[in-house]
Structure formats: C-alpha cells, structure tokens
C-alpha cells in the first residue's frame, strides 16, 4: 500500500522534511489548524517511528495529546510497556515524559497531535529507537 492508497479522514500531507533527522523512515505532516494550539495530522509509513523525545513546559504547558485516526502504531514511555494504538486510541503525555511513537512494522499509521500552549514549551529530541527495541514489539 502506498500513502495515496492509505485511507484516512485527514490529508496525509507533505513529506516531513523539517523533522526528518528525528525519524527512522518517512513521515508526513498535514497542518490542520494554526494559532495558539496548532493541530497536525502526522502519518507514518510502515516501520517509521520518531526518536525518543521529551516535551517541556511549565504550569501545565507542554502536554501532548495523540489521537489515532487510521492504521496501527505504537506509543511507549520510558520504563513502561508499549501501547498499541488503533483508531480511537487517545494518549495524553505529560510534559517531561520521555517517549516515542510510530507505525507498526506492517501498517501505515496516522495520529492527530497537539500540545498544550504556555510558558517554556519546547521539544528535546533524543536518541533513535533502536531496531533491537523496535523489533521486539
């Protein structure tokens, strides 16, 4: 299946070139809204995942919400079991929690993502999720 054959309710978007260095595999980004709370549809080809990363923020800012809209993927926080994401799965990630997310090896995956705005909001990109870890899922 190609990204043009992958059925989802939001656009796939363009290749996510701006953040490509923080992904293994190809991801796509489709901005859905702008403003104070940007909302994006992120699509991952099979096997694509982002690096471990941390969202920072102060006083409730910097929390991330992921809402799976199509396909099947993984979310994992450091030290926790991975969570299988299928359409309708919602994950709330507190600021300061090291985590990663991406497609399963045999499935395209899309999620809508947004972060709570406020003071000190930033992303800290860390090491890639190794094939050794990913291939155990």
TrEMBL record:
Transmembrane segments: none
Domain Cupin type-2: residue ranges: 42-105
Domain of life of the native organism: Bacteria
InterPro entries listed in its UniProt record: Cupin_2 (IPR013096), HNL-like_cupin (IPR047263), RmlC-like_jellyroll (IPR014710), RmlC_Cupin_sf (IPR011051)
PANTHER family: BLL4564 PROTEIN (PTHR43698:SF1), RIBD C-TERMINAL DOMAIN CONTAINING PROTEIN (PTHR43698)
Name assigned to this protein: Cupin domain-containing protein
Organism: Corynebacterium suranareeae
């Amino acid at each position: 299946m190609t990204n043009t054959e992958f059925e989802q309710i939001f656009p796939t978007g363009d290749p996510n070139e701006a953040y490509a260095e923080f992904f293994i595999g190809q991801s796509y980004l489709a901005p859905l809204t702008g403003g104070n709370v940007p909302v994006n549809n992120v699509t991952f080809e099979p096997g694509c995942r982002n690096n471990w990363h941390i969202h920072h923020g102060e006083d409730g800012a910097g929390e991330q919400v992921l809402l799976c809209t199509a396909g099947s993927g993984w979310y994992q926080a450091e030290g926790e079991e991975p969570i299988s994401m299928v359409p309708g799965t919602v994950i709330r990630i507190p600021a300061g929690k090291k985590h990663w997310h991406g497609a399963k090896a045999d499935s395209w995956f899309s999620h809508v993502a947004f972060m709570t705005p406020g003071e000190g909001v930033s992303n800290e990109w860390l090491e890639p999720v190794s094939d050794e870890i990913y291939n155990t899922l």
